[in-house]
């Protein structure tokens, strides 16, 4: 566990190696995977900069990983030397935050769909655009994909099988091809 829901966060995390998941668990214990992050992705910046006392999410490793933590106040404070490095750091941080905002908007678009099939089609469309290919792999198993899409795992598996039977896609585990 990297961050536990309820922790106070005063740092920005940067994934140097491996992968992590951002998870939100509701009061009934239902899990929603908000995102899967990999090398060079940042996390916890929203909660660190907003100075939220209790972090509403959990961050956990999905594999062996290395994380660098940076005090958020040191990033935004003006450097006494006005060094180029500091300006580059701020510029890169803003760029990462903007890309993350785009990713969250894509997820919102996917989750706004009403049916499991519509959510899958929107998710696959996003994957095709991101990978510039109709063949891609995803970082989730069936249960993880169901958590990410906020759908029942058995309904997800049934819909994937139906879509394959209809000739819309082929898949094996987490490898997909849109036909």
UniProtKB/TrEMBL annotation:
PROSITE patterns: CNMP_BINDING_3. Residues 1-71 form the Cyclic nucleotide-binding domain. It holds the Pfam family cNMP_binding. This is Cyclic nucleotide-binding domain-containing protein.
């Amino acid at each position: 566990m990297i961050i536990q829901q309820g922790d106070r966060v005063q740092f920005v995390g940067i994934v140097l190696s491996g992968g992590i998941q951002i998870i939100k668990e509701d009061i009934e214990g239902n899990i929603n995977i908000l995102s899967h992050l990999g090398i060079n992705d940042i996390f916890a910046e929203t909660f660190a900069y907003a100075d939220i006392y209790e972090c509403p999410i959990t961050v956990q490793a999905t594999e062996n990983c290395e994380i660098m933590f940076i005090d958020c106040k040191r990033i935004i404070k003006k450097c006494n030397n006005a060094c180029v490095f500091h300006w580059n750091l701020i510029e890169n941080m803003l760029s990462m935050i903007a890309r993350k905002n785009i990713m969250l908007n894509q997820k919102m678009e996917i989750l706004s769909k009403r049916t499991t099939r519509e959510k899958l089609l929107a998710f696959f469309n996003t994957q095709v655009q991101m990978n510039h290919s109709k063949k891609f792999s995803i970082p989730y198993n069936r249960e993880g994909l169901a958590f990410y899409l906020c759908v029942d795992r058995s309904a997800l598996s049934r819909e994937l099988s139906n879509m394959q039977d209809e000739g819309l896609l082929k898949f094996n585990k987490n490898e997909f091809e849109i036909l």
